[in-house]
Amino acid sequence: MSEIDDMVAGLAARAKTASRALARASDEQKSLALKAAASALIAAQDIILAANAKDMAAGEKRGLSAAMLDRLKLDTGRLSAIASAVEQVAILEDPVGQVIDSNARPNGLVMKRVRVPIGVLGIIYESRPNVTADAAALGVRSGNAVILRGGSEAVNSNHAIFKAMVTGIESAGLPADAIILMPTQDRAAVGAMLRAQGQIDMIIPRGGKSLVARVQDEARVPVLAHLDGICHIYVHSGADPDMAKAIVLNAKMRRTGICGAMESLLIDQDYPAPADLVRALIDAGCEVRADDALMELDARTVSAVEEDWDTEYLEPIVSACMVDSVEEAVAHIARHSSGHTESIITSDEAVAKRFQMEVDSAIVMHNASTQFADGGEFGLGAEIGIATGRLHARGPVALEGLTTYKWLVQGQGQVRP
Question: Is residue 379, in this structure, part of any structural domain at all?
């Protein structure tokens, strides 16, 4: 084993010990710890924002994109939102110990499935420093220890947030090692985490396509992830034009750098006002890469190429095309979606129901902006990410998604014949 492998093994051993203490912690103790952590974040506001300013200056010097800088940036409002998210997790119902189901067998044995923590979570993420607080809060509340490995672009912000979170949870009597921040930015540490089977119980990557692809390719530890956020909105012929325009603009332009941003717009050929949608996006500063039918409606559009339908832009660019029916919309999404979030805008309930049943994505919406693809908006508190796979957890992953279960069997002396 290399020196980095030894270091990660040592951190994982500390986290495993802490995870056993967390699994024993009461609901009240975990809640109080997170409330204290939220207060510590606000108390450390000046320190955290000063650290973030260093990261922003370094990021600008390194030539980070506008989308990356937006993800990195903290201000008093964003830090307050981070602390509020931690507080929201603190008051959520504790999933640990919940009885999923119970079954009394004819022989008198009672079989129960009960939620338990997963154990040690490895969180590998890039430029969003809020993930440091979100992951720590969700880990503590669900009884899991977390090992955090943030990107170098947010190293100062992550350390300041981590320090505040640890101060809070320690004040409530929980172990400091419930949250561990990787002490090195050496990329070899990521590889060591991915090889740490038997030491880290689950890896959760949050970041760009190259990071997630690497994690999925190399991991020997179970992975919970999504690769892209190629989200679609289908404007059906039965959509209210005012509603359609408001939703489309919000879905694309509210924040272009998040995974729930609309990246592809499908407009039914019988929708009465397609030019208004294209015009509204362009007037708002969005580049529209369109098919031939939509290009005829506005000379400011750009001709789409095949790769546009499979691109997560994370900036004010959208691909757009006409479709002749809900069937074609569903087929287009099946070919090009990343399985994250799709939405249909229509007043036709039957069409909406069909769309929601046939589109195979983690989140399928009706008459709503895809920007609602967020754990907080689902009432889950902070989220650890959006899972697009089909096993264990799907969609916004919060407390329940960070638990597994075990069987508890109660007998009265039964022996098997």
Answer: no
